[in-house]
Amino acid sequence: MSYVEVPGAKVPIRMWADPASVEDGALRQLQNVATLPWIKGLAVMPDVHYGKGATVGSVIAMRDAVCPAAVGVDIGCGMSAVKTSLTANDLPGDLSRLRSKIEQAIPVGRGMHDDPVDPGRLHGFPTAGWDAFWGRFDGVADAVKFRQERATKQMGSLGSGNHFVEVCTDASGSVWLMLHSGSRNIGKELAEHHIGVAQKLPHNQGLVDRDLAVFVADTPQMAAYRNDLFWAQEYAKYNRAIMMGLLQDVVRREFKKAKVTFEPVISCHHNYVAEERYEGMDMLVTRKGAIRAGSGDLGIIPGSMGTGSYIVKGLGNEKSFNSASHGAGRRMSRNAAKRRYSAKDLEEQTRGVECRKDSGVVDEIPGAYKPIEQVIDRQTDLVQVVAKLKQVVCVKG
User: Fold this and answer.
1) When you count CB atoms within 10 A of the terminal residue's CB, does the N or C end of the chain come out lower?
2) Contacts of 275 (CB under 8 A, 6+ apart)
3) How far apart (Å, rounded) are the C-alpha atoms in residues 244 and 165?
4) Is 293 annotated as a binding residue?
5) Rounded Cα gap, residues 17 and 138, in angstroms
6) What is the pLDDT of residues 293-326, one digit of tens each?
């Protein structure tokens, strides 16, 4: 599958999705993005759908500007996965105890740890830079300074919505651990603060959509946003690393006899900004619901809580700005899913998975998402499949 080019005001819109399948609201958002004076390119992933502020599944390349709403409020949200030495034969028939132990170790929803997690006690955690990272908190926006204690206690916690922790198996029977989370409340508050600042700037007053307000290079507002953005992206990376360490500890304890070992962790952001160079220009590339898929980059494209997920290797397609989709992508809103489906439907669609099956997570039912296989099939020129995973345990907030 290659892309389809749709005309845009300043740049063409390269779509790895069938334009006829994209909802009108998302198409309007994409057309609006293509009017921005600073835009140099726009790529659309096969999991595209309408999003708050900007389209989910969009890759926006700009010169000397960045749009905070196009990153979204969960700065640095992304995935981590690791292959273990366990096989499906090592797993017990009843996985409820394993799920319970994971939920005890990793706070979910709005929860947090009673005390900050000491990363030094986690096996293999990359502690270099940890102190310097927290030292930089003094330099973030004053508007969130009062949240420091909460931020330290939420480090290593899951959140809610589409965030999850999973135990999966691949086609060969190997067991994988996988999780999805971001920068928690501190990232949300930083994002909302800067989106508010951007919307008041004079150069943004004539935009077709106030949500597309940008910061421009060589201004104090841009410098402040970049500082806080990159700090929040690092928070998200550490958050996933701590959760993965806690998850590995649970697995070690539950399978002591197996003396579990782990391969290197695969980790990728999918709501973030990166400084990259294309067509001889330095650009700020915003991926909202997209992963980097440079040549050889390992990435993770999850489905829903009852379907498969994929470990992929990037092919380095510069037409997509070295990007690929971040997941299956929603095909209906959360409210629509709650209206259409029941807890009984959820139970049916998650048969064989140890997970919540109550009305509180019906909005995450597999039927609310696009078929992951179709999403993968539309980006064969962006990524190569390394492994297909199927969850047997799914923990949600």
Assistant:
1) N
2) 282, 283, 284, 285
3) 9
4) no
5) 43
6) 999 999 999 999 989 899 999 999 999 999 999 9
* Residue 16 near residue 382 (C-beta atoms within 8 A): yes
Give the integer Cα–Cα distance in Å for 222 and 348. Answer: 49
pLDDT band, very low/low/confident/very high, at 152 (cuts 50, 70, 90)? very high
315 to 81, 282, 319, 378: CA distances (angstroms): 20, 21, 11, 14
Annotated active-site positions, please? 326
pLDDT tens digits, 5-35? 999 999 999 999 999 999 999 999 999 999 9
Q: What are phi and psi of 266, to 5 degrees?
A: -95, 130
Residue 99 near residue 91, CB atoms below 8 Å: no
Per-residue pLDDT of 64-76, as tens digits, reads 999 999 999 999 9
Relative to beta strand 298-301, strand 290-292 is: unpaired
What value does the mean pLDDT of the chain take? 96
Q: List, in sequence order, the alpha helices (H) in the chain.
A: 24-33, 68-71, 96-105, 130-135, 148-154, 184-199, 220-254, 334-340, 343-349, 372-377
* 270 annotated as belonging to a binding site for a ligand: yes
What does pTM read for this prediction?
0.96
**CA–CA gap between residue 10 and residue 157 (Å, rounded):** 41
234 is in an annotated binding site: no
Q: What is the CA radius of gyration of the chain?
A: 20
Q: What's the distance, CA 359 to chain centroid?
A: 24
| Residue 209 labelled as part of a binding site | no
Report helix, strand and coil shares of the chain as percent, to nearest 5: 35, 25, 35
**Predicted confidence (pLDDT) at residue 1 exceeds the cutoff of 90:** no
User: What is the total residue count of the chain?
Assistant: 397
- d(CA 154, CA 163) in angstroms, rounded, equals 14
Provide CATH code, domain 4-331+369-396: 3.90.1860.10
